[in-house]
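Figure S7 source data.
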Amino acid sequence: MSGSTPSHQSEQIELHKTLAPRYAYRYSFEYSRLFQQDWHAEMISHVPAGAKQILDLGCGTGFFLAELVEKHPGAVGLDISYEMLRVSDEYIPGAKLVTGDAENLPFEPACFDTVFCKGSLHHVRDHVAFLRNCQEALRDDGLLIMSEPCNDNPFIRLARAVLYKKSPHFHVDDQGFTRKRIVELCEQAGFQVTKVKRYGVLAYVFAGFPDHVGILKYIPGNALLTRFFIGLDRVICAIPGLSLLGFHIVIVGKPKR
Ligand SMILES: C[S@@+](CC[C@H](N)C(=O)[O-])C[C@H]1O[C@@H](n2cnc3c(N)ncnc32)[C@H](O)[C@@H]1O
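Tokens for the predicted S-adenosylmethionine complex:
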């Protein structure tokens, strides 16, 4: 597959200009923040002890980066969209933010202990190039920690394809990954995958995106209900077969060198 064309990158920049205010709205609900915080904690739980140099690739409006910076001061966020980063800048005063392209990283090789990507890989066209850049940016004992849309379930795959095609808030060419495919891509880019875990079912759908599915806004006790969904999702995602209901997949990989 060839790399993203300059026009694809411009389309991503244009798309995310309009999405930046939607993200601020999304995170303005307590129940939605509860779900996102649980998701972030799941990802941050994989950071190796003693990691200091951390990159959030495709950090967007910075709600994940803010939590990362609290635990790991000095973490750096990079995004192709200046508009998304402007929200990060307001939200995390003094954060280290870089406007740049994940397919052409402006960092020295081997300068990070951990690279995070939460929902950014599926936005580029050359997934292997993106992942190879992550590999090169990591030290020998570093870790890549990603969360990407999971398409293992045919119904989720179909729903996602329709949403991405019909909604102006997605790019029609973006798509999720099967577990098999994302592991293959990581291996092609020089990673040994050490953990794969599906994440997010009911809490993902009902609490994660009030800008798309807003029903919980009108339900009293929505924060409590979200906590219940988070717990139930954890059980579902731990049961082989049922875990296919997971909307995202968390992958951890270390560079093969
Ligand atoms: C779904 S959003 C996720 C944002 C953030 N990680 C979060 O979870 O809220 C995807 C992000 O990837 C960024 N992005 C898309 N293509 C990119 C590229 N080539 N290089 C860097 N960032 C990119 C977008 O601007 C957007 O902020």
